[in-house]
Amino acid sequence: MKDLINKNQNLFICILSVIAIITCVFVAIRIENQGKSDNIIIEDNNCKGNTSESKNVIKVDVRGEIVISGVYEMEEGQILNDLIEKVGGLTVNADTDYVDKSLNRASKLYDGQKVYVPAKGEFIKLDSSDNSILIDSSKININICSKTELESLPGIGPSYADRIIQGRPYKNIEDIKKINGIGESRYLQIKDLITI
Hints:
The chain is of the alpha/beta class. It has helices spanning 2-7, 9-53, 80-86, 96-102, 147-151, 158-166, 184-190; strands spanning 57-64, 70-75, 114-117, 123-128, 131-136, 140-141, 194-195. The strands form three sheets. Strands 2-1-3 form a three-stranded mixed sheet, with no helix packed on it. The chain has a two-stranded antiparallel ribbon with strand order 4-5.
């Protein structure tokens, strides 16, 4: 028996080595397959993450009588009401009549937009013929003002006011010159009375 073991010692060593190599290869393949399946899960998670991050982010400046003023990042497609909720709502001093009449809570936000909520009494009433017109004590915001406020501007009647409203939003006040019928001379009459 001893002689048989001695004669076949090399054969036993070879067999044991082959078994060890096969075991190592099997373990390595199994570990590699587990790693690949983990990578697939990670890639799936990243894909899901990229879907939510692919939405465009816009920045909107909110001032006036809101709980927390500042510049807010919003997702493209969100509306003014979403922004009002995000800033904590209006303060008790907010002119809610103005907000209800002049701000469209369903309007879509755009990048670089400024939203201003006035305080009670910040707007003064002036009588013009039969209508009571709200005039901003500083300037009229052509992106959010009412048709009546636009008609209070020199040279702007009902049809021009409608065109201005349809042309919103404006990136700067000079964009109003793109409205049919508002040329340089009419723009010069109103440029110091308007803002965005």
